[in-house]
C-alpha cells in the first residue's frame, strides 16, 4: 500500500493498544501538530486509524490568586481578626478589625463581599459579629487554590466558577486529539506500507518548470475538522476611527494632532474653565509628577487668558472674579478631552495663524477618572472637530452633525440644551441604540464664547464639538457595552468576530 509520507510516519508511530496524543507524535516526528492531525483525519477516513477528540480545560492561578495562597484570603483575615477581638460574643467595630486584619484598599471590599457569603458572620451598621462554628481552615476556595499550586486537579465546578468570577484563576479550553491504530492499520503495516511521492502544494517552481502536469498531488479531505486559525485583524474600534476620518476628510476637514500630556493651560484655562471647576480637581484629572509642569507658554497669551478669567471680555462679561494661579496653569496632566488640540491650533501654536474659513478634526484618546460602566472608561476616543468662519449659527452646527451621522446610518438625532464654560449656546447630542432602544448621549457641542476666542486672538465665529467614538460604534453596530471593545475586560471573541457595519 502506498500512502503520503506523513500518513505513513503517523501510521507507524501510532499504537493499537493505547491512544497517542497528536502533539506527542508530532514531537517524535519533528512535524507540526496540524500536519499530524490532518494525517490522522485522513487515516481515520481510510479506516487505518481512529482519531478521537476531547475537550480539556486548564486552570492556572492569576497573580492575585498566587498572592492569596501565600497571604491568605481577605475574608479569612477579617474572620480571624474578629475572633481574636471577641466578635463571637459581642459586635466589634469594622474600622477596628480592618486595621488588625491588615486590610487596605480593594482588600477591604473583597473581604466584606465574601465574609457574609461564606457564613463567617454578619456586618451590620459598621459592627461585625462572627459565627464561632465556622472553619476557615477548610475554606473550599482556599483549598482549591492550594491544590492548583500543587499541580492537583479541582473537580468542584462551582468552586472553580467562583474563583473565576473573583479573578483568581484563568481557565483555558482546548481540543486534544489522539490517534489509535485500528485492526486494518495493523494489517496494512504487516503487509507493508510505502511512502508515495506526492506533492502537498502547488509552488511557483512547479508552475514555471511544467512539472505540475506530471506530479501526484496529496489528497485533501476538505470535510475533516481542522484547528481554528485566528489571524491578526484590525481592531474594530480602529476600523471605526478610520471610517470617521474618511468621512470627515470627505466633508472638507483636516486632521490635527497634539500632545497627550499637556499643560492645564491648554487643556482647561484656554477654554475659559475656572480653576476651581470640579473637572480640574485631582479626583478627575490624571496629573503628571515628572516633569510636573511646563514653561513653554507665550507670556502674552498667559496674560490675556488670565485677564479673561479675572475680568471677562467686553462690556457684558465679568469673568469669574476668582484667583487664577499661573503655576497651576503650567502643571502637566493627561488631557481630559482633545479640545486642548483645538486651543493650540486656534492660538496659532500648532500651525501658525489661521485665516477663516478653516475646518479641523482629530480622533484621539482622552483620559478621565470616571466610574466604569457600559458607557464609561478611564480612557476613550474623542472625535474633536471645529469650524472657523463668519456668522456661524446653531443651524450650521446641527446640519454638520446631520450630514456626519447619516454616513453611519444614524438619522434620529436628538439635541438638548446644556451648559459649557466655553460655548454659548451649547447642546448635547443623543442617538437611539438599535438593540435596547435607549437614548444614549453621544456628544457635546456649541459656539465658542468670546471669553475663549478673544484671548486667542480669533475674531470670527468658531463652532466646535466633542463626540464619543465608542458610542458611535455602539449605535452603528449594536454593541451594548464598551468594556467588550477595549479595556481590562475586553471580549476577545467579540473583537475576533465582530464586523463593523456602516
UniProtKB/TrEMBL annotation:
Its cofactor is Mg(2+). L-phenylalanine binds at residues 339, 382-384, 422, 448. It catalyses: tRNA(Phe) + L-phenylalanine + ATP = L-phenylalanyl-tRNA(Phe) + AMP + diphosphate + H(+). The keyword Phosphoprotein does not apply. Gene3D superfamilies: 1.10.10.2320, 1.10.10.2330, 3.30.1370.240, Bira Bifunctional Protein, Domain 2. Pfam families: tRNA-synt_2d. This is Phenylalanine--tRNA ligase alpha subunit. Keywords: Aminoacyl-tRNA synthetase, ATP-binding, Cytoplasm, Ligase, Magnesium, Metal-binding, Nucleotide-binding, Protein biosynthesis. The keyword Nucleotide-binding applies. Belongs to the class-II aminoacyl-tRNA synthetase family. Phe-tRNA synthetase alpha subunit type 2 subfamily. It comes from the Archaea. It is found in: Cytoplasm. HAMAP family: Phe_tRNA_synth_alpha2 (MF_00282). One of its GO terms (molecular function) is magnesium ion binding. Binds 2 magnesium ions per tetramer. InterPro entries: aa-tRNA-synth_II (IPR006195), aa-tRNA-synth_II/BPL/LPL (IPR045864), Phe-tRNA-synth_IIc_asu (IPR004529), Phe_tRNA_ligase_alpha_bac/arc (IPR022917), Phenylalanyl-tRNA_Synthase (IPR002319). One of its GO terms (biological process) is phenylalanyl-tRNA aminoacylation. Its EC number is 6.1.1.20.
Amino acid at each position: 500500500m502506498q500512502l503520503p509520507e506523513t500518513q505513513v510516519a503517523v501510521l507507524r508511530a501510532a499504537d493499537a493498544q493505547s491512544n497517542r496524543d497528536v502533539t506527542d507524535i508530532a514531537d517524535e516526528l519533528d512535524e507540526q501538530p496540524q500536519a499530524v492531525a490532518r494525517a490522522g483525519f485522513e487515516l481515520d477516513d481510510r479506516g487505518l486509524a481512529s482519531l478521537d477528540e476531547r475537550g480539556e480545560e486548564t486552570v492556572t492561578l492569576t497573580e492575585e490568586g498566587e498572592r492569596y495562597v501565600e497571604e491568605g484570603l481577605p475574608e479569612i483575615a477579617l474572620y480571624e481578626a474578629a475572633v481574636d477581638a471577641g466578635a463571637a460574643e459581642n459586635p466589634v467595630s469594622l474600622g477596628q478589625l480592618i486595621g488588625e486584619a491588615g486590610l487596605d484598599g480593594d482588600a477591604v471590599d473583597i473581604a466584606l463581599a465574601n465574609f457574609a457569603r461564606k457564613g463567617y458572620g454578619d456586618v451590620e451598621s459598621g459592627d461585625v459579629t462572627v459565627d464561632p462554628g465556622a472553619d476557615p481552615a477548610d475554606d473550599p476556595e482556599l483549598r482549591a487554590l492550594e491544590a492548583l499550586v500543587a499541580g492537583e486537579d479541582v473537580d468542584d465546578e462551582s468552586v472553580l466558577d467562583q474563583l473565576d468570577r473573583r479573578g483568581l484563576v484563568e481557565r483555558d479550553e482546548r481540543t486534544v486529539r489522539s490517534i489509535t491504530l485500528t485492526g486494518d492499520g495493523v494489517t496494512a503495516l504487516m503487509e507493508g506500507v510505502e511512502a508515495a511521492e506526492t506533492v502537498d502544494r502547488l509552488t511557483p517552481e512547479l508552475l514555471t518548470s511544467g512539472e505540475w502536469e506530471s506530479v501526484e498531488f496529496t489528497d485533501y479531505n476538505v470535510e475533516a475538522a481542522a484547528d481554528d486559525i485566528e489571524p491578526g485583524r484590525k481592531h474594530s474600534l480602529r476600523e471605526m476611527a478610520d471610517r470617521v476620518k474618511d468621512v470627515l476628510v470627505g466633508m472638507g476637514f483636516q486632521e490635527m494632532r497634539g500632545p497627550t500630556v499637556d499643560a492645564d493651560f491648554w487643556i482647561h484655562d484656554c477654554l475659559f474653565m475656572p480653576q476651581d471647576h470640579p473637572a480640574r480637581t485631582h479626583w478627575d484629572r490624571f496629573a503628571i509628577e515628572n516633569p510636573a509642569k511646563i514653561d513653554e507658554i507665550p507670556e502674552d497669551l498667559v496674560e490675556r487668558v488670565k485677564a479673561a478669567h479675572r475680568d471677562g471680555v467686553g462690556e457684558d462679561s465679568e469673568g469669574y472674579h476668582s484667583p487664577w494661579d499661573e503655576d497651576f496653569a503650567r502643571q502637566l496632566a493627561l488631557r481630559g478631552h482633545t479640545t486642548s488640540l483645538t486651543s493650540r491650533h486656534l492660538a496659532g501654536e500648532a500651525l501658525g495663524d489661521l485665516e477663516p474659513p478653516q475646518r479641523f478634526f482629530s480622533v484621539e484618546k482622552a483620559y478621565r477618572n470616571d466610574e466604569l460602566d457600559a458607557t464609561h472608561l478611564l480612557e476613550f476616543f474623542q472625535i474633536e472637530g471645529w469650524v472657523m468662519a463668519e456668522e456661524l449659527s446653531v443651524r450650521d452646527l446641527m446640519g454638520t452633525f446631520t450630514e456626519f451621522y447619516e454616513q453611519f446610518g444614524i438619522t434620529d438625532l436628538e439635541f438638548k440644551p446644556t451648559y459649557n464654560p466655553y460655548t454659548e449656546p451649547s447642546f448635547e447630542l443623543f442617538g437611539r441604540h438599535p438593540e435596547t432602544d435607549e437614548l444614549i448621549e453621544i456628544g457635546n457641542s456649541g459656539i465658542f464664547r468670546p471669553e475663549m476666542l478673544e484671548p486667542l486672538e480669533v475674531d470670527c465665529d468658531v463652532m466646535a464639538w466633542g463626540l464619543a467614538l465608542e458610542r458611535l460604534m455602539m449605535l452603528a453596530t449594536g454593541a451594548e457595552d464598551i468594556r467588550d471593545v477595549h479595556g481590562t475586560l475586553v471580549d476577545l471573541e467579540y473583537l475576533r468576530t465582530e464586523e463593523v457595519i456602516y
